[in-house]
Amino acid sequence: MKKTLQKNTYKQLVEDITELYDCARHALVEAYWQIGKRIVEQEQQGDDTPEYGVRLLARLSEDLQHKPGSGFSVRNLRKMRRFYLNNRNRPAPADLTWTQHVELLPVTNKADKRCLERRIISDKLSPRQIRLEVRQLKESEQAPAQDKTPVLLPPPRRTERQNSKGELKGIRLWA
């Protein structure tokens, strides 16, 4: 009896920790979206592109590295800004981690992005697998479009060749 209680207690502990971790992960994604939003509002006054020469991200990065700590490099702040801009009208899926969202940043086609988001959730794709999927998607977008119109060629002409004795040597096809 005591062992089943311990098993149930342990199982509940695992579930509680998993739930706490998921809440923290969702809060982190939400925080990064909010940071990106504030950067866009401050630096860009809501525009898609920042004003030239402002250097807000460099200053922000330097100041934030001293207060909250690491994780606020210029590169990460750019990712947060881009994350907000990519998900301005539609909240980002809460089931994805920040790393998964970052791997999806290069995807600009909304339908492709939604499809990949669903696949990430259902297939539990790793960041490496997501990167490969995104790379394949980009390569297929950059590949030249195949022309689907059929090419009509004239039928081949048949000519028979004769050797010096007048015997047929074979049939040659000419295009």
Secondary-structure blueprint:
Elements: H1 2-44, H2 56-66, H3 74-86, H4 98-104, H5 110-123, H6 127-142, E1 157-162, E2 168-174
Antiparallel strand pairs: 1-2
Q: What portion of residues belong to β-strands?
A: 5-15%
Distance between the termini: 88 Å
**Number of H/I helices:** 6
Number of domains: 2
Roughly how many Å is the radius of gyration?
30 Å
Order of helices and strands: HHHHHHEE
Strand numbers in spatial order across the main sheet: 1-2
Assign a percent range to the helix content.
55-70%
The low-confidence runs, each spanning 5 or more residues with pLDDT under 50, are none
Describe the biggest sheet? 2 strands, antiparallel
Number of strands: 2
Alpha-beta classification:
mainly alpha
Shape: elongated
The average pLDDT is: 81
